[in-house]
């Protein structure tokens, strides 16, 4: 019984399988640092947003302290006016101080109202901040988990790459020299596997374009590597 596939092609297919594995490892090692950078940027963004929200709260607290000081100094002013009143002798001076006292008392009332409003704002702000912080912490944990997973994967792949290269070298040494030369030529021209494809329904399995009947019949000879005239891949007859 005739062998269904050219045995030299079969060896190239084994080599291609090892090459694909190596290619996938190398591609992953290229993309993992980009993925890591993406998650690190998300973490930085998250932390910056929380820091900004915290700063806003602190500013409210500063405003509250300022108001508090304003109230205290207005109250001190009132005490001063009252002491002055004890010393003045003229009635119009006394009246003028009474007027100042009233104005300052009104100011104190306004400041105290503003302070109450601000304290409510601070309470609400603290509540919102605590909620936002909890949500942000959850997202941060997810990002950190993703980073850890990626780093583990990177370590695993780095550990596998030498073995994958050795596998490629081993299968290369088992290839027929002429077939290997053709394979290497395709590999130099194409960025990624497959480099070897079966003909299916008169079409190259790599580029899916129809191959000529000359090409197709050449693959049936199983005596030399045949290339797809469209994409350059090595094509073979499977049945
Ligand atoms: Zn093709």
- How would you spell out the order of helices and strands? HHHEEHEE
Bound molecules: zinc ion
- The SS-based structural class is mainly alpha
Fold-level CATH name of the largest domain: Helix Hairpins
Give the helix level as a range of percent.
over 70%
Domain count: the total is 2
Query: Over all CA atoms, what is the radius of gyration?
Result: 41 Å
Could you list the spans in which at least 5 consecutive residues all have pLDDT below 50? none
Average pLDDT: 96
Number of strands: 4
Instruction: Profile the largest sheet.
Output: 4 strands, mixed
General form: rod-shaped
The amount of beta strand, in percent, is: 5-15%
Termini gap: 12 Å
Q: Assign the CATH class of the largest domain.
A: Mainly Alpha
Second-tier CATH architecture of the largest domain: Orthogonal Bundle
Q: How do the strands of the widest beta sheet line up side by side?
A: 2-1-4-3
Report on this structure:
With 239 residues, the protein is mainly α. The protein has two domains: 12-163, Helix Hairpins; 176-239, no CATH class. It is built from four helices and four strands; from the N terminus they run H-H-H-E-E-H-E-E. Strands 2-1-4-3 form a four-stranded mixed β-sheet. Helix 1 runs antiparallel to helix 2. The longest helix is centred in the middle third of the chain and has 83 residues, at 91-173. The relative contact order is 0.14.
């Amino acid at each position: 019984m005739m062998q269904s596939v050219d045995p030299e092609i079969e060896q190239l297919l084994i080599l291609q399988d090892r090459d694909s594995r190596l290619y996938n490892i190398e591609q992953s090692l290229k993309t993992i640092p980009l993925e890591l950078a993406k998650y690190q940027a998300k973490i930085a963004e998250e932390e910056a947003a929380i820091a900004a929200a915290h700063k806003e709260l602190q500013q409210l607290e500063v405003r509250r302290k300022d108001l508090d000081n304003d109230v205290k100094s207005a109250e001190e002013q009132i005490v001063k006016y009252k002491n002055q009143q004890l010393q003045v002798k003229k009635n119009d001076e006394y009246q003028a101080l009474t007027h100042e006292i009233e104005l300052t008392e009104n100011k104190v009332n306004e400041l105290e109202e503003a302070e109450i409003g601000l304290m409510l704002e601070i309470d609400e702000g603290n509540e919102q901040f605590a909620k936002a912080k909890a949500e942000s912490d959850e997202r941060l944990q997810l990002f950190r988990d993703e980073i850890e997973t990626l780093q583990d994967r990177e370590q695993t792949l780095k550990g596998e790459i030498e073995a994958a290269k050795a596998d490629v070298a081993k299968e290369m040494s088992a290839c027929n020299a002429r077939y290997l030369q053709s394979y290497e030529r395709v590999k130099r021209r194409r960025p990624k596997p497959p480099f070897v494809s079966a003909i299916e329904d008169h079409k190259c399995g790599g580029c899916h374009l129809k191959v000529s009947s000359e090409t197709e019949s050449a693959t049936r000879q199983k005596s030399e590597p045949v290339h797809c005239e469209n994409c350059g891949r090595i094509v073979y007859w499977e049945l």
